[in-house]
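Lecture 7 notes. Example A: sequence first, then its structure tokens.
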Amino acid sequence: MIGRTLGLYLAARFTRSILAVFAIIFVLIYLIDFVEMLRRAGDIANVTTLGIAALTFLRVPSVTEQILPFATLGGAMVAFIGLTRKLELVVARAAGVSVWQFLTPPVLIVLLIGIFSVTVYNPASAFLKQKADAIEIGMFGRTGPSQGDSSLWIRQRSLDGQSILRAEQSSERGSRLGSVTAFVFNLDNRFIERVEAARAVLKPGYWELEEARVLTPGEEPHATARYELATYLSADQVSQSFVTPDAVPFWSLPEFSRRTEAAGLDATGYRLKFQALLARPLLLVAMVLIAASFSLRFFRSGGVSRMVSGGVASGFVLYVATKLVSDLGGAGFLSAPVAAWSPAVVGSMLSTLVLLHQEDG
């Protein structure tokens, strides 16, 4: 087994490298998002630069979660190349330490980082994102830039069947809607009628649509001052439908998923996010193994840039594959566990195969 002193030394080197790369990326993302938020707030009165800076700081942690695998890859490659350049790994190999032995400390470190990011950092970033979304809605009217269809959609079910609501405005966490269109279906999922209303207010057990116009196939449209649309949704469940999976803490995702499904809403995003967080430690391990595959050679004759480029390209391919499989899972083509775990498992297996070929022939 690798000695305690060498193991602690390698663990400290990798921890410093990964945290340094993560901090650099954090600052870059903060500056870019700060400039973008300043641009968006340029025409809004009573918005200060300090307020924009604080809002940006609340937004960035949620974004940086997505670049943690890249920070791990970059930090691992920096650490491996530094150890190889100083011939420290060469000396360790000459002393009888195999590649699998000196890979143990960095693998354990990234496992701890992954567990910490899931159990502590993710809940904190989700809490900050919820605060940022609330401030952003009050400042800009809605979160994110207004591009394309910015309408709000709610799919619900009741004792009468299912219905889909589309609203142009919302307030009071979705309990009051403006410019509403409701598509009503019966228990056999056959379309019954379309209701257009100026406003909709959530009451216990039903939506109250005001100044409504009802369009039923085969009948003349007629207007009514008040139209009741049954629903199983509560005020909390409606507010959840406007909460993105990124804004839900890790510990609350199973309960969010269960309550969303009970209300007849699509909980795929919450299930997929939960499984992706569970798979994150293994994904970070895959990034370390990829870095080792491209950084452990003794490059006396050069070729450092080629190795670094190969490692970055491999990490990018794994990231793209992760996003692609995640989109397939979100669309329902793959189950949430398969979509979340397969990139990490495949990446780890392929990297291990490359290391076995390099070290053991």
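Example B, a different protein, same format:
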Amino acid sequence: MSTRARPRPHGRRAVLALLCLGAALATVAVHAPSATAKERGAVRPCQALGLGLSRYGAGSARHVLFAVAADYGTTEVAITECTRRGVFWRQTLTAPGHVGRNGFAEPGAKREGDGKTPTGSHSLTEAFGEGDPGTALPYRTLRESGDCWGSTIGDGRYNRYYPGECAPADENLSEYMRSGPYKQAVVIDYNRPPDSPIVQGNGSAIFMHIGAAPTAGCVALARPELETVMRTLHPRDRIIMGTRQALFP
């Protein structure tokens, strides 16, 4: 046999060595910890809702809105509408929006006048503004004056609609309708029935309304998108809102 043929075992050993190295690298790749959906920035609210990966459930809602901020103190949110299709949730709208000038309050920490939007899941049971855009929610057409919402701590009208002369600390719905934000609005049932009893001082007048800037605690988005959403809503549909870390595990 020629001595030139003898290097073959070395070639086989080299191939085996490469195969072993590849297997080792594959093992490392399999067992290396992967980034969470939040770390990848890949949280998809409708998908998370369908997979049970939202900290807050949908209840009997057929439509759920998410208002999600990147972190506490951030006023910009991504608004997503999810529509139930059998056991699945399908994304039907996305839009930019804003929340309170001081961002979201941590769960249970919202207080009157703090400039924060409450975290949590809240039903949507009524709407108001200058004219019904075609919503299935009970709708109140506001007058040029005389429509109010209580925000005075200790007053029996706290976090309720009432007609008449608005107290100084209360929301003058008619005035805000004339100036723009309340030309269309949906009531978010934070700190009020049917979600909970009213607790004095825990926050009032939390609405989803027209706007393109931080609010006093409401959720704001452009009028075309708001009216599109309003036309899909029915009583007991919900909004789930907060930071990514508060809403998704």
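Note on Example B: Residues 39-247 form a domain with the L,D-transpeptidase catalytic domain-like fold (CATH 2.40.440.10). The radius of gyration is 26 Å.
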